[in-house]
Design brief:
Helices cover about 0% and strands about 55% of the residues. The chain is built from no helices and 21 strands.
Length: about 190
C-alpha cells in the first residue's frame, strides 16, 4: 500500500512470495478480519528508507513510518519468516495495537515491534511458532513508552518450537498470559508492572 490512511477488512492474502502487506508508512491504518496464509511475511514496512523519507516505485517520498496502526481479529498461518515486523526509529512515532489475532505455524517470529512510542498486544493466541534452536522469541515488543501485554495464550510443543515466548522492553505491563512448552516465558531489561 502507498497510502497513509487505509481500512482493509475481510481480505485473504495467500502464498505471497514476499510480504502480504509492505507499507511505506502507517498513518491511521486498520487491518480487520484479514487472513494471511503461506506468505513469506505478513505485515512489514518498506525496507529502503532514510530517517525522514522512503523509496517507492515512484521514487523518494516523505512521511512518518508508523504513526497509528491497528491490527484486529486477523489470522496468520504458515508464515515462513515474520507475521508482523515493524521498526520505528523515532521516539514520537509508533503506536501499534494488535488485538484478538491468531498466529499458527509461524516458522520465524510471530511479532516483532521495535522502537516507537507505545504498543498494546491483547487477546491473541500463539501456537506452533518457531523451530528448535531458534534465536527468536515468539513475540518481541520494545517501545520508548508503555508496552501493554495482556490476555495472551502461548502454546508450543516442548522441544519443537522456539524456546522463549516473549521479550518486552520499555515500560512493560504484562498480565493474564498463559505459557505452555517454553524454557523461558518473559525476558525484559526493565521491571514489569
Amino acid at each position: 500500500t502507498n497510502t497513509a490512511n487505509a481500512l482493509i477488512v475481510r481480505t485473504r492474502f495467500q502464498d505471497q512470495k514476499e510480504s502480504a502487506i509492505n507499507a511505506h508508512c502507517f498513518q491511521d491504518q486498520v487491518y480487520q478480519d484479514c487472513e494471511f496464509v503461506g506468505c513469506r511475511n505478513g505485515i512489514t514496512q518498506g525496507r529502503l528508507r532514510g530517517s525522514t523519507y522512503w523509496w517507492s516505485q515512484r521514487g523518494r517520498g516523505s512521511g512518518r513510518r508508523v504513526v497509528r496502526l491497528n491490527i484486529v481479529n486477523c489470522r496468520f498461518r504458515q508464515i515462513r519468516e515474520r507475521a508482523i515486523d515493524l521498526v520505528s526509529n523515532e521516539p514520537d512515532e509508533g503506536v501499534v495495537a494488535i488485538q484478538n489475532c491468531v498466529f499458527e505455524e509461524i516458522k520465524g517470529q510471530a511479532i516483532r515491534l521495535l522502537g516507537g512510542k507505545s504498543h498494546i498486544v491483547q487477546g491473541c493466541r500463539f501456537g506452533d511458532v518457531g523451530f528448535p534452536g531458534s534465536r527468536y522469541a515468539v513475540m518481541q515488543v520494545t517501545g520508548q513508552g508503555t508496552v501493554t501485554i495482556s490476555h495472551l495464550n502461548f502454546e508450543n510443543v516442548a522441544g519443537e518450537g522456539t524456546a522463549t515466548a516473549m521479550v518486552v522492553d520499555g515500560i512493560p505491563t504484562v498480565s493474564h498470559c498463559s505459557f505452555t512448552g517454553f524454557d523461558q516465558t518473559v525476558i525484559t531489561r526493565n521491571p514489569l508492572v
